[in-house]
């Protein structure tokens, strides 16, 4: 397998577990929280700053800077003027590119689909599921309280969407942005792994 697989996922859909099983099946590295540790070590920022970044994607200069449109007076705004959150995003993006450059791997979340969009060997997957399936997994696996569980799941998804949409300018979960979308509630986790693996191995 010579591909870089990115997995975007709704909370509770099992995207992380699916990614882990795919990486194990192919014998390639798996990156999720590992990206945080690596980015923190290389950038000097605390891990907690990366872990809470999704909840802080509000006003920023990064979107316009990335497109060369941000200015202050007659001067371009550079890295030194970026917010802490934007510097964290850029540090994480650098690590994601490094991981991809090292060879085939599976990367979960963190806008990897967008960050690696110029690479020819990237396959972008989106994993989704209905709310009852996600709620059951969130309680059983993640230990979330069943109280207002569906409301809390949707809040997490909204944070993920805001973070992705803000930093990429593209809509999170829009099917046109992915190579393959899989409903894990319909096929189950193991079958989802099989479906994705068969698809990737065949292209």
Kindly state the number of beta strands. Answer: 7
Low-confidence stretches: 58-77
Distance between the termini: 10 Å
Helix content: 40-55%
What is the succession of H and E elements? EHEHHHEEHEHEHHEHH
CATH class: Alpha Beta
Radius of gyration computed on alpha carbons: 17 Å
Write out the CATH superfamily name.
P-loop containing nucleotide triphosphate hydrolases
Beta-strand content estimate = 5-15%
* Estimated structural class: alpha/beta
Report on the biggest sheet.
Answer: 5 strands, parallel
- The DSSP helix count reads 10
The chain-level mean pLDDT equals 86
Give the name of the CATH architecture: 3-Layer(aba) Sandwich
Number of domains: 1
Biggest sheet strand line-up: 2-5-1-6-7
How does the overall form come out from the CA principal axes?
globular
Question: What is the fold named in CATH at topology level?
Answer: Rossmann fold
Entry summary:
The chain is of the alpha/beta class. 50% of the residues lie in helices and 13% in strands.
């Amino acid at each position: 397998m010579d591909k870089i697989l990115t997995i975007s996922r709704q909370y509770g859909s099992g995207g992380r577990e699916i990614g882990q099983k795919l990486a194990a099946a192919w014998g390639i590295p798996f990156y999720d929280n590992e990206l945080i540790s690596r980015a923190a070590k290389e950038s000097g920022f605390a891990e907690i700053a990366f872990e809470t970044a999704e909840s802080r994607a509000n006003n920023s200069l990064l979107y316009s800077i990335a497109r060369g449109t941000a200015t202050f007076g007659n001067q371009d705004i550079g890295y030194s003027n970026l917010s802490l959150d934007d510097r964290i995003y850029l540090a994480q993006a650098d690590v994601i590119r490094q991981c991809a450059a090292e060879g085939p791997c599976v990367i979960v979340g963190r806008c990897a689909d967008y960050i690696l969009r110029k690479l020819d060997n990237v396959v972008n997957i989106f994993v989704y599921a209905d709310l009852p399936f996600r709620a059951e997994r969130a309680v059983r696996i993640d230990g979330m309280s069943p109280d207002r569980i569906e409301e809390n799941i949707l809040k997490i998804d909204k944070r993920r969407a805001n973070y992705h949409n803000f930093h990429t300018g593209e809509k999170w979960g829009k099917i046109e942005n992915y190579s393959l979308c899989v409903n894990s509630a319909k096929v189950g986790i193991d079958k989802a792994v099989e479906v994705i693996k068969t698809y990737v191995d065949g292209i």
